[in-house]
């Protein structure tokens, strides 16, 4: 069983124009990462706080090889589902891979790099107060 932390401190703003599409995109992303045994999957709501995406997904892998495999698998799943053709930054042997899937950006980190860059603190607002744990079976 994996845990997904869904930090949604949603500011007062207009809802996403295609909430169903966004929910489907997030579901495919988090399911793919969970299948690949990603650790500490976090979804941050960026609505009204960033112009580049509606959500940010952050996850950790235990090796550079695992991170690379997660990125390749996720890219394939998104294409198969006709959801996105993500742009990918970072390559094999990298401790951080960034995937831009349109309304969702995905950061895949080694634990040390994730701690160093601390994106949850930067983008999560009052992360501890807004965090909600959702068990994924």
From TrEMBL:
GO biological process, one term: negative regulation of ribosome biogenesis
GO cellular component: cytoplasm
The keyword Cell membrane is assigned to this record: no
Record bears the keyword Lyase: no
InterPro entries named in the record: Iojap/RsfS/C7orf30 (IPR004394), NT_sf (IPR043519)
SUPFAM superfamilies hit by this protein: Nucleotidyltransferase (SSF81301)
Subcellular location: Cytoplasm
Superkingdom of this protein's organism: Bacteria
Main location per the UniProt record: cytoplasm
GO molecular function, one term: ribosomal large subunit binding
Subunit structure of this chain's protein: Interacts with ribosomal protein uL14 (rplN).
Primary role: Functions as a ribosomal silencing factor. Interacts with ribosomal protein uL14 (rplN), blocking formation of intersubunit bridge B8. Prevents association of the 30S and 50S ribosomal subunits and the formation of functional ribosomes, thus repressing translation.
Family per similarity comment: Belongs to the Iojap/RsfS family.
UniProt-recorded name of the protein: Ribosomal silencing factor RsfS
Protein species of origin: Parasaccharibacter apium
Gene coding for it: rsfS
């Amino acid at each position: 069983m994996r845990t997904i932390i869904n930090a949604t401190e949603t500011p007062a703003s207009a809802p996403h124009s295609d909430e169903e599409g966004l929910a489907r995109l997030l579901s495919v992303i988090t399911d793919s990462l969970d299948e690949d045994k990603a650790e500490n999957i976090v979804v941050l709501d960026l609505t009204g706080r960033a112009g580049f995406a509606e959500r940010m997904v952050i996850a950790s892998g235990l090796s550079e090889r695992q991170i690379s495999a997660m990125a390749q698998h996720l890219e394939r799943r998104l294409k198969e589902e006709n959801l996105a053709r993500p742009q990918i930054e970072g390559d094999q042997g990298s401790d951080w891979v960034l995937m831009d899937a349109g309304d969702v950006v995905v950061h895949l980190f080694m634990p040390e790099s994730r701690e160093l860059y601390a994106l949850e603190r930067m983008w999560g607002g009052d992360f501890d107060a807004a965090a909600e744990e959702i068990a994924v079976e």
